[in-house]
Amino acid sequence: MKTSLLPALAAALTLALPAQAIDLENMSPAEREALRAEIRSYLLENPEVIMEAVAVLEKRQAAQQAQADSELIAANAGAIFEDGHSWVGGNPEGNVTLVEFMDYRCGYCRRAHPEVRDLLEFDGEIKYIVKEFPILGDQSTMASRFAIATLQQAGDAAYKQVHDALMNYTGEINQTALTRMAEGLGLDPQPITDHMDSAAVSEVIRENMALAQKLGISGTPSFILEDEMLRGYVPLDEMQRVVAEVRGGE
Predict the structure, then answer these.
(1) Which of 11, 32, 55, 198 has its CA 20 to 30 A from that of 161?
(2) Contact at 8 Å (CB) between 170 and 106?
(3) Integer angstrom CA distances of residue 86 from 56, 124, 133, 210
(4) Cβ 86 vs Cβ 129: under 8 Å
(5) Of 75, 103, 121, at which residue does a domain stop?
(6) What digits encode the pLDDT tens for the residues 94-129?
C-alpha cells in the first residue's frame, strides 16, 4: 500500500507548489528525505486522504479487472455459453445468460442455490447454465460424475432433480447414497452409476476445469453474467441489481 500511494501523494503535493519547486526525477537525498517528511506530516494532519486514495485505487483496480474479465469471456464465449454438454435451465430463450461454476460440497454454493432458483423464478427471462466444477475432493468429483451421468443417460429433467437433491444432501457421498438418491427420485440407478466413470463424463469435467483455468476461476461459486464475472456468493438482491445493470447496458 505504501509503495502504491507515496508516488501519487508526492505528485499531488507538487501540484500545489511552484512548477520548479521539486524535480522528482533529480532530487538529492536531503530533498527526498524532506519530501518524505512533508508527506508524512500531511498524512498525519489529513488521514482521510489515505482512505480517499485507497478508494480511488480500488475503483481503478476493479475497473481493470472487469475489463480483463470481459475480454476473457469474449475470447472463450463458445465454451462458456454453447459447450453442448452443460445443463441449461431457467428460460432457454431468455435475454440474459447466467453461468454458474459450482461444487456440490461447497457451502456457499448451497447457500446460493435457493437464491439462484428465486432469481430465475422472479425474473423469468434468464437463461441459466450449470458448469460442474468439482474442486473440493473425491466426494465432490463423485457427485459431479453422478450428475453428469444422469444428464447424459436420463436427460434434462432427471438432471434437474439430481442437481437439486445433491445441493440439499448433507451426508457422505458414496455409491450406496447415490443409488438410493436415484431410486428415491424414481430413476433407474444402474445405467447412471455404470456411466459415471465413462470417458464422456470425464471429458465434461476436463473441459470445465480447463475453461475455469483460462478464466482465472479457482473457487466456487463463480458466476458469469453476460460479460461480467461475479466471483463468490452473491445475494439475491445484488444479483438482481447486476442483472438490471446488464439489461440497462444493452
Answers:
(1) 198
(2) no
(3) 39, 20, 11, 14
(4) yes
(5) 75
(6) 999 999 999 999 999 999 999 999 999 999 999 999
Q: Which amino acid is at 193?
A: T
pTM (global) more than 0.90: no
Range of the domain at 70: 2-75
pLDDT at residue 10, as a whole number: 53
Q: Are residues 154 and 231 in the same domain?
A: yes
Backbone phi, then psi, for 235, in 5-degree steps? -65, 160
Which cell numbers in the block locate residue 110? 448451497
29/62 same-domain check: yes
Which residue would you say has higher pLDDT here, 248 or 96? 96
Same-domain status, 63 and 115? no
What nine digits make up the cell of 90? 431457467
Closest CA to 111 of 63, 168, 172: 168
